[in-house]
Design a protein that fits this description.
210 residues; five-stranded parallel β-sheet; alpha/beta; 10 helices
């Protein structure tokens, strides 16, 4: 096992409701009930000798434009040494439930901006988690037209910034060959406990903890 997260690191998780996972927005140490809590707990069990602070700043409903608007307060001011971001599914979802699309060009431009801020102000390690959509209910299949180009944009940005990519769309696609999609995310977006655990496990494996 090669543990890459250093002693005294500050690991910030950013994103939407999948990251938020019911956390108390007023509590600085509140990690929610999803993959962030699971990731932090497993890391602490595996590496109890390391003093690592985990911070969750995911906010339900956020799109990448919302991250950009609050990036100073909810990222740069926290001075993290690691920044993990999962964003994008609401940029797709709002097209279908509110007729309020986000173009892939705008998505990538806003994402680029926040990554440039991390690079220029923090020099923190970056972890980009792909947005994902599972094919349940059936109308989610049509979302691929919108979400796939955004996944491609995340992959391009990961290459550009030398970030660690967590390919969750592909990981969930493979997992759905073992168990039905609703086992992992009943609405195709919000994970079950098993789905959150799969994200945490994948994160820790790729980062080098497991």
């Amino acid at each position: 096992m090669s543990v890459t997260i250093e002693d005294n690191a500050v690991v910030l998780f950013q994103g939407d409701s999948i990251t938020d996972a019911g956390r108390c927005l007023g509590g600085d140490g509140e990690l929610g009930q999803g993959y962030v809590m699971m990731t932090a707990s497993l890391f602490s069990a595996i590496c109890p000798d390391r003093q690592v602070r985990f911070v969750n700043r995911g906010i339900s409903g956020n799109r990448v434009r919302d991250l950009r608007a609050r990036w100073q307060e909810d990222c740069l001011d926290l001075a993290p040494t690691w920044v993990s971001i999962m964003i994008g599914v609401n940029d797709t979802w709002r097209r279908y439930d509110s007729n309020d699309p986000t173009s892939v060009e705008d998505f990538e431009a806003d994402y680029l901006h926040i990554l440039e801020q991390v690079r220029d102000s923090l020099n923190a390690r970056l972890i980009l988690i792909e947005p994902f959509v599972l094919p349940v209910p059936s109308d989610r299949v049509a979302w691929r037209e919108d979400v796939d180009p955004k996944i491609d944009a995340v992959r391009r940005l990961a290459r550009q910034f030398g970030a660690t990519l967590i390919p969750m769309d592909g990981v969930f696609a493979q997992a759905c060959t073992v168990r039905e999609p609703s086992f992992w995310a009943p609405d195709g977006v919000h994970p079950t406990p098993a789905g959150h655990a799969l994200i945490a496990k994948t994160w820790l494996e790729i980062v080098g903890v497991l």
